[in-house]
Amino acid sequence: MSEFDLLQKVLREWEAPEPSAALDARVRAGFRAARAHAPWRRLWTARVSVPVPVLAAVLLLLAVAWAVELRPEMPRRPVPPAPGVVTRLEATGFQPLPDGVAQVVPVGDGKR
Amino acid sequence: MYVDEIDPGLLARARGGDETAFLTLYQRHRTPAFRFAYRLTGSASAAEDIVQECFLALLGGAGFDARQGSLRTYLFGIVRHLALKRVRLVERETEEAGNRMAEFDPLGDLLTSERAALVEQAVDALPLLQREALILFEYEELSLEEIAVVSGVAVGAVKARLFRARESLRRRLAPLLAPCSEGSCG
């Protein structure tokens, strides 16, 4: 018999006891107590397993969305009118056309 | 179907509240889990506490992933974690660990103790990581790869721990090994 086998044989002389019946009862009671917890209470201790790359991508997206949302709005610059052209918009007395027939009226004719 | 393939299904049912599934899993794994905890802690009551905590942790959503190993190795991992926490706490409190090596006297003990008690003392005197590797390999018959998963180290580290543990035990149990070779220990 090799020294290795001999050592193995000697080691096997140390036997562990069997677990007691009291342990079975304790574990069963523990299971019933855990099961008795309402589902909404289990929600507080529930865990979700997420792969690290997915978590990193979600965090990155959230950070970008947050940054875009909080970006200060640039003040709008008034558009300067093109030289030589005057734009006038007069809406006083405007009425929609009754039957959609459009008629072009030159500015000079309207005054008359 | 192999036992390791049935376990994840049973676990899912147990988590859903199926007591029969839970008890089937428990009956299947409780004795190896208890033996491992007992041999690591040296205390039956501590081992029972650990086994109870281990199975309830399994229900409470501890993250078992069948792709990373069997439920058996996963349970050994939980037992290991709980047992090492307890052993380290006890060793820190009593400072017994440092003195144990010095107090160990195989020849003297041989006169008063039984052989099994000597083996237990010799295993108990091993450094913690060597002890767990030896227990898992020799008593629970886990493969080197499974021990590596349980301990969270490379297979090479497990081999080194086992080698050192055996060397140490061979020296310490020399008085027992010699009579055995002459056929006096069964």
Word description of this protein:
- The complex is a heterodimer of chains A (112) and B (186).
- Helices cover 50% and strands 0% of the residues of chain A.
- Chain A has 112 residues and is mainly alpha-helical.
- Chain A has helices at residues 3-11, 21-36, 39-45, 52-70, 107-111.
- The relative contact order of chain A is 0.03.
- Chain B is an all-alpha fold.
- Chain B folds into two domains: 1-94, RNA polymerase sigma factor, region 2, helix turn helix motif (Rna Polymerase Sigma Factor, Chain: A, Orthogonal Bundle), CATH 1.10.1740; 99-186, Winged helix-like DNA-binding domain superfamily/Winged helix DNA-binding domain (Arc Repressor Mutant, subunit A, Orthogonal Bundle).
- Chain B contains eleven helices and no strands.
- Chain B has helices spanning 3-15, 19-41, 44-59, 71-94, 96-103, 106-112, 115-124, 128-139, 144-151, 155-172, 174-181.
- The termini of chain B are far apart.
- The chains are: A mainly alpha (112), B mainly alpha (186).
